[in-house]
Write a structure and sequence with these properties.
Blueprint (H helix, E strand, L loop, with lengths): L1 E6 L2 E9 L6 E4 L21 E5 L16 H15 L2 E6 L1 H12 L4 E7 L29 H7 L6 H14 L6 E3 L6 H7 L4 E3 L2 H10 L2
Helix pairs in contact: 1-2, 2-4, 4-5
Length: 216
């Protein structure tokens, strides 16, 4: 089942992959991906309902005209889904891991644990701005994933100190001893800084799922 949510002028697709009782697990996909049609086997141990969100320009969500993508806009997408579902645990892969981190710090009372996993777009554009790029895309038939999103979001700047600011917000305001768990093997500079912060655990996915499920 898919529900349509509004985020400004964007219509987002929020997919229910599995029903159930308890706190939902919300999946945030990687750059250029879309929500899976079914619960991935690695996430099947989660005991409650499972939802997945298509970010702006991806999957069944709106493809805007002319680009203008930022990670903060996608955090707004995630916030709209959190507003719909209430308290959630997040599983983000790649770009979705970065968005999960931002959401955990920005909405600490609603995000009851965020799992950061490998996937497309994990590194972003590095810690510092590079030469500007103006993408030229044929506008006649834009289709997801939006080519503008692939260019712009793959180059978003991720300073380590910006990342750790969101870790500290989650630590101080969530009430959880471990609000973030890193399962990713790849560790770009921002994620290395995150792992070094108190309140962040590096653990296998199965252990992360079990830990946050127990915090019902």
């Amino acid at each position: 089942m898919t529900k349509r949510l509004r985020h400004s002028k964007i219509e987002l697709a929020l997919h229910r992959l599995r029903g159930g009782e308890g706190r939902p697990l919300l999946l945030l996909h990687g750059l250029g991906e879309r929500s899976p049609a079914h619960v991935p086997p690695r996430l099947a141990p989660w005991p409650g309902p499972v939802y997945a969100l298509d970010f702006t320009g991806h999957g069944d969500s709106t493809v805007p005209t002319g680009g203008g993508y930022t990670a903060e806009c996608l955090m707004g997408d995630a916030d709209a889904a959190i507003g719909e579902l209430g308290e959630v645990t997040l599983h983000g892969r790649g770009l979705g891991a970065w968005i999960a981190l931002l959401a955990a710090g920005a909405r600490p009372s609603a995000v009851r644990g965020a799992i950061l996993a490998d996937g497309p777009g994990l590194a972003g554009g590095g810690a510092r701005p590079t030469s500007p790029v103006i993408p030229f895309v044929d506008p006649s038939a834009p289709a997801p994933p939006d080519p503008f999103s692939l260019v712009e979001l793959s180059r978003d700047v991720r300073p380590p100190e910006y990342a750790t600011a969101f870790v500290r917000l989650a630590n101080e305001l969530s009430g959880l001893a471990r609000p973030l768990t890193v399962c990713a093997v790849e560790r770009p500079e921002w994620l290395r800084a995150v792992v070094e912060e108190p309140g962040v655990e590096a653990a296998p996915l199965a252990a992360a799922l079990a830990t946050y499920a127990e915090r019902g």
